[in-house]
TrEMBL record:
This is DNA-binding transcriptional regulator, ArsR family. It comes from the Bacteria. The keyword Transcription regulation applies. GO terms for molecular function: DNA binding; DNA-binding transcription factor activity. InterPro entries: ArsR-like_HTH, HTH_ArsR_DNA-bd_dom, HTH_MetalResp_TranReg, WH-like_DNA-bd_sf, WH_DNA-bd_sf. Residues 8-101 form the HTH arsR-type domain.
Length: 119
């Protein structure tokens, strides 16, 4: 069986327009907020009020922009935020986005399995 490896742009290949475009959707901002804790998450742990295929699309947009790194282990996929690479390429941008998202409650409807649901 051949497993297709996900490609990830190097920090030098990341562009501001692509990163900002990826952050233009509340679901994707919510995913970034979840991943900002530095933990790698299994795709199955992520909860959003959308179809699994749509969640997969959003995760691919984040990966293609360079915001996340995806790793496959057997049949499971894991995702983590590329905080260090983003800060090296765009210093302060991620922290500013996360603070604004928290202040405006953007993406709060995206959760992790087992966490209490937002009210």
């Amino acid at each position: 069986m051949i497993v297709k490896q996900a490609s990830h742009p190097s920090p030098e290949e990341m562009t501001l327009v692509t990163v900002m475009g990826a952050l233009s959707d509340p679901i994707r901002v919510g995913l970034v907020r979840i991943l900002a804790d530095g933990r790698e998450r299994g795709w199955g742990e992520l909860r959003a009020p959308i179809a699994k295929s749509t969640l997969s699309h959003h995760l691919r947009v984040l990966r293609d922009a360079g915001l996340t790194r995806t790793r496959q282990e057997g049949t499971r996929c894991f995702v983590e935020l590329r905080h260090h690479d983003l800060n090296a390429r765009f210093p302060g941008l991620l922290d500013a986005v996360l603070e604004a998202a928290h202040n405006d409650d953007v993406g709060a409807h995206v959760t992790v399995a087992g966490d209490p649901q937002p009210t």
